[in-house]
TrEMBL record:
<dbReference type="InterPro" id="IPR006976">
    <property type="entry name" value="VanZ-like"/>
</dbReference>
<keyword id="KW-0812">Transmembrane</keyword>
<protein>
    <submittedName>
        <fullName>VanZ family protein</fullName>
    </submittedName>
</protein>
<feature type="transmembrane region" description="Helical">
    <location>
        <begin position="124"/>
        <end position="141"/>
    </location>
</feature>
<keyword id="KW-1133">Transmembrane helix</keyword>
<feature type="domain" description="VanZ-like">
    <location>
        <begin position="21"/>
        <end position="140"/>
    </location>
</feature>
<dbReference type="Pfam" id="PF04892">
    <property type="entry name" value="VanZ"/>
</dbReference>
<feature type="transmembrane region" description="Helical">
    <location>
        <begin position="70"/>
        <end position="91"/>
    </location>
</feature>
<keyword id="KW-0472">Membrane</keyword>
<feature type="transmembrane region" description="Helical">
    <location>
        <begin position="153"/>
        <end position="173"/>
    </location>
</feature>
<feature type="transmembrane region" description="Helical">
    <location>
        <begin position="15"/>
        <end position="33"/>
    </location>
</feature>
<dbReference type="InterPro" id="IPR053150">
    <property type="entry name" value="Teicoplanin_resist-assoc"/>
</dbReference>
Length: 192
């Protein structure tokens, strides 16, 4: 694979990729932790709450993740894999997967600790698969574009970042309100 530093203008391409990735990570964090609402910390922060450790099925007081939620999580992490591929083109699929899993784990732990969501292993799996889908898309672009891959990926990532920013601005300015739960506290029903 041709190193992006050997091509004219590739230093600029790398800077654009890094800036776009940083913007994407900020937006991803905002979406995952606060669902595009003003940042807040829930009243249950710091309190012991159950973790959903069994993926894809209801467990304890937690229901199974809805198919729509899983598709959204998958789609949110596809750009992660695109960026990883563009910034570290020599990585294998498992390195890209480990980095995606680590990022997902950090987000899951953060939303659990600050009580804006709950820890769910389904999300870890689906997010990682989404990133790997993005990484596979990067590989397909590389096979097709060859030496033009850095320039093509810079354009793809910059356009995707601009579209994501436009969508966020439109959502924030719209009358829509996702209305996420403010605290994740499990209410226990009385013994029967």
């Amino acid at each position: 694979m041709t190193s992006s530093t050997t091509r004219p203008g590739s230093g600029r391409d790398r800077v654009v990729l890094i800036v776009a990735f940083a913007v994407y990570l900020v937006l991803l964090t905002w979406v995952v932790l606060w669902k595009l609402e003003m940042p807040w910390i829930g009243d249950a922060a710091g309190l012991a709450r159950p973790l959903k450790l069994v993926p894809f099925v209801p467990s304890g007081d937690a229901g199974a993740s809805s198919p729509a939620e899983m598709v959204i999580n998958l789609a949110l992490f596809v750009p992660f894999g695109l960026f990883v591929g563009a910034l570290a083109p020599g990585w294998s699929w498992w390195k890209a997967g480990v980095v995606a899993l680590g990022a997902s784990l950090l987000l899951e732990m953060a939303q659990h600790v600050i009580s804006t969501g709950s820890f769910d292993t389904t999300d870890l799996i689906v997010n990682t698969v989404g990133a790997l889908v993005g990484w596979v898309i990067f590989l397909a672009v590389h096979r097709r574009a060859g030496d033009r891959t850095p320039m093509v990926m810079t354009r793809i990532c910059a356009i995707a970042c601009a579209l994501a920013l436009a969508a966020v601005v439109a959502f924030v300015l719209s009358p829509l309100d996702y209305g996420p739960q403010r605290d994740v506290v499990v209410e226990r029903s009385a013994q029967r």
